[in-house]
């Protein structure tokens, strides 16, 4: 990967909201990003439950299935194993400066807030925080406990962006896809990636 390539780390963890993650992946690849994708074991269960999408355990087989589903350029996607410690995302010397965890479980929030670095997603997030990069957590849980809120507060104070998976309704969504696009549009906005997924507030002509 050249240092001029646009690169980003994306992690799917085991919170509800697999459609957000898949749509975000599709948009990042369409925006010509090199995507390092991390998928937790629980995220695979959620993908199977919510999307009826069974991802094989191996990284090459998982990548092949994602490329087939999204019709994307295989050279742009790298699927990393959860203990692939030699992945570029595991070191500040090579990791992309931007990372999104979408959807993000309360368990992963807790691990990241305490610097656990026990799997590649937690380590990659730890790297982005220590390198003062941009980390977005699309957290999904309801209600939030005091533990969840304290962990998110701690991360927010370090500059991590907490973006609850809480789509608005003011764009008058007609479908689940519209709700998904609302969230993905806000994520892309924060990453500085041009998008036209939903009309902007005040510009819709309504
Ligand atoms: C179908 C399904 C939905 C889940 N939804 C949530 C959720 O919305 N939020 C959450 O924090 N955990 C949720 N969980 C539980 C997490 O998957 C579990 O805590 C897991 O250990 C998280 O691990 P991970 O962060 O490494 O993926 C869900 C689990 C399953 C199987």
Automatic annotation (TrEMBL):
<feature type="binding site">
    <location>
        <position position="40"/>
    </location>
    <ligand>
        <name>FMN</name>
    </ligand>
</feature>
<dbReference type="InterPro" id="IPR004507">
    <property type="entry name" value="UbiX-like"/>
</dbReference>
<comment type="similarity">
    <text>Belongs to the UbiX/PAD1 family.</text>
</comment>
<feature type="binding site">
    <location>
        <position position="140"/>
    </location>
    <ligand>
        <name>FMN</name>
    </ligand>
</feature>
<feature type="binding site">
    <location>
        <begin position="105"/>
        <end position="108"/>
    </location>
    <ligand>
        <name>FMN</name>
    </ligand>
</feature>
<dbReference type="GO" id="GO:0016831">
    <property type="term" value="F:carboxy-lyase activity"/>
</dbReference>
<feature type="binding site">
    <location>
        <begin position="14"/>
        <end position="16"/>
    </location>
    <ligand>
        <name>FMN</name>
    </ligand>
</feature>
<dbReference type="GO" id="GO:0106141">
    <property type="term" value="F:flavin prenyltransferase activity"/>
</dbReference>
<feature type="binding site">
    <location>
        <position position="170"/>
    </location>
    <ligand>
        <name>dimethylallyl phosphate</name>
    </ligand>
</feature>
<comment type="function">
    <text>Flavin prenyltransferase that catalyzes the synthesis of the prenylated FMN cofactor (prenyl-FMN) for 4-hydroxy-3-polyprenylbenzoic acid decarboxylase UbiD. The prenyltransferase is metal-independent and links a dimethylallyl moiety from dimethylallyl monophosphate (DMAP) to the flavin N5 and C6 atoms of FMN.</text>
</comment>
<keyword id="KW-0285">Flavoprotein</keyword>
<keyword id="KW-0637">Prenyltransferase</keyword>
<feature type="domain" description="Flavoprotein">
    <location>
        <begin position="6"/>
        <end position="191"/>
    </location>
</feature>
<keyword id="KW-0808">Transferase</keyword>
<dbReference type="InterPro" id="IPR003382">
    <property type="entry name" value="Flavoprotein"/>
</dbReference>
<feature type="binding site">
    <location>
        <position position="186"/>
    </location>
    <ligand>
        <name>dimethylallyl phosphate</name>
    </ligand>
</feature>
<keyword id="KW-0288">FMN</keyword>
<protein>
    <recommendedName>
        <fullName>Flavin prenyltransferase UbiX</fullName>
        <ecNumber>2.5.1.129</ecNumber>
    </recommendedName>
</protein>
<dbReference type="Pfam" id="PF02441">
    <property type="entry name" value="Flavoprotein"/>
</dbReference>
<dbReference type="InterPro" id="IPR036551">
    <property type="entry name" value="Flavin_trans-like"/>
</dbReference>
